[in-house]
Amino acid sequence: MRQLDPRVVEKRKRRLLQWVIHSYIKSSKPIASQDISEEAGLGLSSASIRNLLKELEDEGFLQQPHTSAGRIPTDKGYRFYVDYVTRLQRLAAEEKARIESEYASRVAEMDNILSQTSRLLSHVSHSAGLVLSPKMEKQHLKRLELIPLGGKQVLAVLVTQAGLVRHWPINLSFAPTASRVNMLNRFLNDHIQGKSIQEVQQSVEARIEQASREIQELGDLAGRLLKEMADFAQPAELYLDGTTNILAHPEEIGDPREMQSLIRVIEEKQALAEVLQRIVEESPEKGPRAMVRIGGETRRTELKNLSLVAATYRLNGEVIGVLGILGTKRMEYSRMMSLVSHVSEIVSRSLEHWSEE
Amino acid sequence: MRQLDPRVVEKRKRRLLQWVIHSYIKSSKPIASQDISEEAGLGLSSASIRNLLKELEDEGFLQQPHTSAGRIPTDKGYRFYVDYVTRLQRLAAEEKARIESEYASRVAEMDNILSQTSRLLSHVSHSAGLVLSPKMEKQHLKRLELIPLGGKQVLAVLVTQAGLVRHWPINLSFAPTASRVNMLNRFLNDHIQGKSIQEVQQSVEARIEQASREIQELGDLAGRLLKEMADFAQPAELYLDGTTNILAHPEEIGDPREMQSLIRVIEEKQALAEVLQRIVEESPEKGPRAMVRIGGETRRTELKNLSLVAATYRLNGEVIGVLGILGTKRMEYSRMMSLVSHVSEIVSRSLEHWSEE
DNA sequence: TACTAGCACTCACATATTTAGAGTGCTAAT
DNA sequence: ATTAGCACTCTAAATATGTGAGTGCTAGTA
């Protein structure tokens, strides 16, 4: 037999690797050379397959749980697999319908969309669903209103252009009259419109100086308001649902000690939020294409047994947050990537819709 | 030896049962007659203890996992134990301090208090923490304000006397002027103050009839507002945190199939919310005394492996919600009861504080 | 009558021992 | 370049064996 083109050989190896990982994801059992020979349709005997598997193992794509077991993917293997999964899986019609209807029914404000989205993702994926809200401080303000609650109390309500709403109570040292509050509202809204919180903090402070010469208490209140606003604006919120889905299959988690570590990951949203925040910041504006972080790729050992599928969502073309799912490494990447990017698309659209109107 | 007073005998039996259950909770191992004889200080030999244990088993308080094992409590046993635990355990000083500081630092609105509380309960108890919010429809209104967002959008913000805040967006068919919105705000607030949502729905509708003759669109808006308000007001919200704590110890959960059922419980907040809602409704006004539901006592088979420790919280003397923890049956009831009733007390106090000011 | 010592018995659990077979790596043949 | 064939390794399941924990019961004692 004459020598084969090396490119053909390489291509075959890739197909093999694909097939192995795909089967492993479906069956959760190590894949043996014989199965491949019989089912993969490569037209090679198990012995030849074994040779190829050996090579793939040496190259770090596969590994054996023990000497006489089939192969399972390494992180590098999964990575290869994911990078070559170009054809995203079509979502089942019913799932698609469900997703659409979820958003069609109630295009409420952003907060609702985000928390609903995280729940939705978790249900459809049977993994944990997560959504990182936009950072408040980067948001541009639409409206800041004080609502008098009687007595010395007022409620501050802040609405951003994206449709995020935050509210917090303020106890004053005096009982403001309705007209005072009105005046302050007008003053504030005249000056904050379209600015970010950071900007407001600076630009308004100067104006207050000036205004407070006229009306003493008004200045006090406004100053205080701004200070608390800053306090409040800090964290990007992480909506996380369905974490128990990850723990649902103890057999997936070899070591029971792993369990503990998984739980720690989940309970400490902080760390997760940071990983996600980094994604937002590093993300190019390009599209809703889902990205995948496999096991240790996040550099966080806590996540070494999990994979993250995430996509950013945008408002006015700008990336403002990220959403996705978190599950075991042995997940249906193709389907999850479809799901996540589809949802991110819808969320972006909903937000545009909201902020235009 | 002359015959013993039967009352003395009974008392001793109770003490024995207490001791057994207490030790089991601490050690998580079935309790043997010998251990009791040596450590419980009853001054009886293991043989005598065995006789007593037999009786207690016949009476349904204890059971054996298998023939030659020690005893563990039945639900009935736990019930007995809990009913006789009158002396609540003092919380550790540091925990107490932590709890206090948590509330001292930020007496924000009710929504915040509730979600923070559920997190707190979960952390301190190492179980799931839960808080059922008051039913919106029963709440009395303090304020209902429309905030114009520019264009045809307004944001409705509703504040109840208890300090619950809800907000939702409304898309109008026309762009309202600032003065129109002002007018409507005044109109609404004049008529809703102190009424419950249910009442408002009825009493205001009549007034709108009248008012809308004067200003057409105003009536439209108000009507729409009230309708959406009703939609919105339906569910009592359930804050649930730290559910993974329950799953943290797989060894506690004998059967891995149990795991699945546990997860289902947790994911379906609905069922849990109903159980809690019933507690609110059946609860007498009396005090913050913690109540305990052991295993199947809730009549819900999903909960048969868990116990619930809960206490109601009040506003102006009226029971408006419930909070507590959910964990395995083998929990430190005494400590949990202290914790829950203490927290319920603080929450009630915080709410009073808020609504007075 | 109230309690206890003592013993036979049961059963889970831990520890070997065996067996079966799954799957490999290598070699020799094509 | 590929494959048949075989020796080898290692797991997982099945079986055997021993040990000790803990009981129930009986007969005996204060």
Task: Offer a few descriptive terms.
DNA-binding; about 350 residues; homodimer; three-stranded antiparallel sheet; 10 strands; 13 helices; alpha+beta
Protein architecture, described:
The structure is a homodimer of 357-residue chains. Chain A is of the alpha+beta class and 357 residues long. In chain A, 52% of the residues lie in helices and 17% in strands. Chain A has 13 helices and 10 strands. The first copy, chain A, has helices spanning 6-27, 33-39, 46-58, 75-84, 93-105, 110-125, 178-192, 197-214, 216-233, 244-247, 256-267, 269-282, 333-356, and strands spanning 62-63, 72-73, 128-132, 141-148, 153-160, 165-171, 238-241, 291-294, 306-315, 318-328. In chain A, strand 1 and strand 2 (72-73) form a beta hairpin. The longest helix of chain A is centred in the C-terminal third of the chain and has 24 residues, at 333-356. Chain A is elongated and about 90 Å long. Chain A binds chain B through residues 108-109, 142-143, 145, 147-153, 155, 157, 159, 163, 165, 167-169, 171, 182, 242-245, 247-248, 250-251, 256, 259-260, 263, 266-267, 354, 357, and chain B through 108-109, 142-143, 145, 147-153, 155, 157, 159, 163, 165, 167-169, 171, 182, 242-245, 247-248, 250-251, 256, 259-260, 263, 266-267, 354, 357. The first copy, chain A, binds a DNA duplex (30 and 30 nucleotides) through helix 3.
Q: Could you give the topology of this structure?
A:
The structure is a homodimer of 357-residue chains.
Chain A: H1 6-27, H2 33-39, H3 46-58, E1 62-63, E2 72-73, H4 75-84, H5 93-105, H6 110-125, E3 128-132, E4 141-148, E5 153-160, E6 165-171, H7 178-192, H8 197-214, H9 216-233, E7 238-241, H10 244-247, H11 256-267, H12 269-282, E8 291-294, E9 306-315, E10 318-328, H13 333-356
Antiparallel strand pairs in A: 1-2, 3-7, 3-10, 4-5, 5-6, 8-9, 9-10
Helix pairs in contact in A: 1-4, 2-3, 5-6, 6-13, 8-9
The structure holds a DNA duplex (30 and 30 nucleotides).
